[in-house]
Amino acid sequence: IDLGIASCGWALIEDDPTAGRIVDWGARTFDAPETAEKRTPTNELRRRFRGMRRVIRRRRQRLTCVRDLLAANGLPQQSSETLDPWELRAVALDRVLDADELAAVLIHTAKHRGFRSNAKRKANEPEEDPKKKMLRAMEASRALAAKYRTVGEMFARDPEFAKRKRNRDGDYTRSILRDDQEREVRLIFARQQALGSTIATDDLRDAYATAAFSQRPLADSEDRIGFCPFERDE
């Protein structure tokens, strides 16, 4: 049997070491599992959409966990539309935030928690690979953020981000590393405590960091390896 993406060729050979003649042969063809225009494999589309659904589901679960944590600590579960979370992330370093303002900062940060990669980079990846472009853009953002105390303060104060704070297709200059986000949250809690806040506690900080920034470990495939049911010794 010779199985391809749009056909299956087959041949029946006589089990005779001296003759070994072909008894019969043929091919069965079928529609290729590809899109008509770009010839994209349909399983690639399914995998992409399944990944998007997974991201949305886990983001919803993460925000639900953060809101439950805020409610347990007497903070609002929704941020007011009148509050500017970017501005609050900047002023949080210099003045005490009330409950509504702190909740807005924490919810906003959990929604935009930044990027963390588990990928092992390959030297032969194309230079214009989207992941490489994003990593280069994040390094440039980190260099700019060195002028500020936190990335939140950079987005709120730097003229570069006055008109746009989100990425666009092919433009990753607004990407943030998750480690920088977590570092900012810990600094905000430290400053709030130093300024006399009674709601920015260490317990809330640690529980929030776990809820907002944790990431599932890479799946191990060891449990999927076993002996072949046909070749018992393999």
Describe the structure.
By secondary structure, this protein is mainly alpha-helical. The protein has 7 helices and 3 strands; from the N terminus they run βββααααααα. A hairpin with an 8-residue loop joins β2 (7-13) and β3 (22-29). α1 packs antiparallel against α7 (202-213) and α2 (85-91) crosses α3 (99-111). The longest helix is centred in the first third of the chain and has 31 residues, at 42-72. The protein is elongated.
Topology:
Blueprint: E1 2-3, E2 7-13, E3 22-29, H1 42-72, H2 85-91, H3 99-111, H4 130-145, H5 151-157, H6 178-194, H7 202-213
Antiparallel strand pairs: 1-2, 2-3
Notable characteristics:
mainly alpha
Kindly report the spatial arrangement of strands forming the biggest sheet: 1-2-3
Category from helices, strands and their pairing: mainly alpha
Task: Count up the helices.
Answer: 7
| Coarse morphology | elongated
Biggest sheet layout = 3 strands, antiparallel
The stretches of 5 or more residues where confidence is low (pLDDT under 50) are none
In terms of quaternary structure, the protein is single chain
Summarize the structure.
Helix content is 44%, strand content 7%. The protein has 7 helices and 3 strands.
